[in-house]
């Protein structure tokens, strides 16, 4: 998950007003999301079942009562009818809206039923009250990060003053060779990674074509039965398309997780000799560069079945083949005056017709378009992600080696000074390291104190 450990994460589960006696209660919903969906990454106490509709209606009603002293007429603003239905029940009457105290009490109860009070108190109020603590904790972590970097730099420079000049020259030369080897390996590994991508895309496209053929065959079999109603066909088509989409998405997730693992192994095998060589030659300095491997993100298009069904159902009017100019004028005026019966005479009323063959062709075209989009997304997203990730990986590793080489050259330049300058620099470094140790310890204590305050706020 792209959330830091110090960032509090909360989940709001909407539409809890649709719960019935067969639905899970609040505790069961929290346990399901915490244990199954979030894999234990969030505690049940950070999950809040809510009803945004009830919260909106309650707040809207309280706002109108506070500003205008009454609710608008339901005929003018339809939300009032929704509020009355939710707060007063299905048998509400217009006279009930005149009892302001009763309406105000009903709005407060509806707000309580929306369950929004608890997350607002936990999230907004707590965040506002602890804003200074959040800022202070962020500053403490930044200070620790800078202190860690400063300690590595000071330790390296202090050790560099105790290394012979010839040894420093040898280390600089070895780092230069490592940089050249890195560039050579980058050119070689690019071809291997490209080959792995081509194999993965070929396999994925083959699987995609199989799913496309199977789905079109299922749709064709579905439309052979003319006895089913449109609603039944709609439901079965949506089920087929959603199942196919889930199957494709799940398969691609597994395929490209394996591809990511393979590419990480390839990059690790290439970098490990260089890393081991650098560590072996500079183990006493304590310098250790960081390594970052590519991360792949999948983008999956979705079927839009509801819009598709709306488009293939055509509204047609059965009219005479020859329309007179007078009939057209009457029809125009009837639309303007909102009188559909004017000017129709013996014409038939509008009817909705569904051509199942058109619907089947449209669904097949949607499936084909979906598969084309998937193939295009795979070719673009995977290749771009891998290329960008690999370039970033090698650039960061080369930056580590370049920085290491720069520090070695700085140490060599100081080491070549006369002994008095070297001794003075050693004394200054010792004093700086001592001062830095105090700063680092204070930063750790500050971080621990802030964490203690956060823990106390929770209880």
Summarize the structure.
The chain has helices at 26-37, 52-68, 79-88, 100-114, 117-129, 131-160, 165-222, 230-281, 305-312, 325-336, 356-415, 419-458; strands at residues 11-13, 47-49, 314-316, 351-353. The chain is mainly alpha-helical and 459 residues long.
Describe the overall structure.
The chain has 459 residues and is an all-alpha fold. It folds into three domains: 11-131, no CATH class; 166-303 and 355-401, no CATH class; 314-353, no CATH class. 71% of the residues lie in helices and 3% in strands. The protein contains twelve helices and four strands; from the N terminus they run βαβααααααααβαβαα. The protein has helices at residues 26-37, 52-68, 79-88, 100-114, 117-129, 131-160, 165-222, 230-281, 305-312, 325-336, 356-415, 419-458, and strands at residues 11-13, 47-49, 314-316, 351-353. The strands form two sheets. Strands 1-2 form a two-stranded parallel ribbon. Strands 3-4 form a two-stranded antiparallel sheet. The longest helix is centred in the C-terminal third of the chain and has 60 residues, at 356-415. Mean pLDDT is 75; it is low at 289-352.
């Amino acid at each position: 998950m792209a959330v830091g450990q110090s960032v509090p994460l909360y989940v709001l589960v909407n539409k809890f007003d649709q719960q019935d006696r067969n639905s899970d209660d609040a505790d069961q919903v929290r346990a399901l999301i915490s244990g199954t969906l979030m894999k234990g990454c969030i505690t049940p106490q950070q999950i809040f079942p809510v009803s945004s509709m009830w919260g909106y209606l309650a707040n809207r009603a309280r706002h109108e009562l506070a500003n205008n002293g009454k609710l608008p007429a339901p005929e003018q603003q339809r939300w009032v009818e929704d509020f009355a239905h939710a707060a007063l029940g299905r048998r509400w009457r217009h006279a009930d809206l005149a009892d302001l105290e009763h309406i105000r009490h009903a709005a407060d109860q509806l707000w309580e039923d929306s369950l929004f009070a608890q997350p607002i108190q936990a999230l907004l109020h707590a965040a506002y009250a602890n804003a200074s603590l959040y800022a202070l904790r962020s500053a403490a972590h930044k200070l620790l990060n800078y202190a860690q970097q400063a300690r590595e730099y000071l330790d390296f420079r202090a050790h560099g003053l105790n290394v012979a000049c010839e040894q420093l020259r040898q280390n600089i030369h070895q780092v230069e060779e490592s940089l050249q080897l890195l560039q050579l390996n980058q050119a070689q590994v690019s071809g291997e990674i490209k080959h792995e991508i081509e194999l993965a895309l070929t396999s994925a496209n083959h699987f995609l074509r199989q799913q496309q053929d199977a789905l079109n065959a299922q749709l064709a079999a579905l439309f052979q039965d003319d006895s089913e109603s449109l609603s039944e066909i709609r439901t079965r088509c949506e089920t087929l398309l959603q199942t196919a989409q889930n199957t494709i998405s799940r398969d691609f997730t597994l395929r490209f997780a394996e591809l990511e693992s393979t590419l990480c192994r390839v990059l690790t095998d290439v970098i490990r000799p260089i890393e081991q060589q650098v560590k072996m030659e500079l183990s006493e300095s304590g310098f250790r560069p960081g390594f970052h491997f590519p991360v792949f993100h999948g983008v999956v298009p979705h079927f839009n079945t509801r819009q598709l069904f709306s488009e293939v159902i055509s509204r047609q009017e059965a009219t005479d083949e020859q329309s007179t100019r007078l009939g057209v004028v009457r029809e125009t005026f009837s639309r303007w005056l909102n009188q559909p019966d004017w000017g129709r005479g013996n014409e038939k009323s509008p009817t909705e017709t569904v051509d199942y063959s058109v619907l089947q062709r449209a669904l097949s075209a949607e499936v084909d378009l979906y598969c084309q989009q998937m193939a295009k997304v795979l070719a673009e997203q995977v290749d771009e992600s891998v290329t960008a990730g690999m370039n970033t990986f090698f650039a960061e590793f080369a930056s580590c080696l370049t920085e290491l080489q720069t520090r070695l050259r700085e140490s060599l330049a100081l080491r070549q000074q006369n002994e008095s300058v070297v001794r003075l620099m050693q004394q200054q470094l010792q004093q700086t390291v001592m001062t830095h140790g105090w700063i680092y310890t204070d930063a750790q204590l500050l971080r621990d104190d802030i964490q203690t305050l956060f823990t106390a706020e929770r209880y």
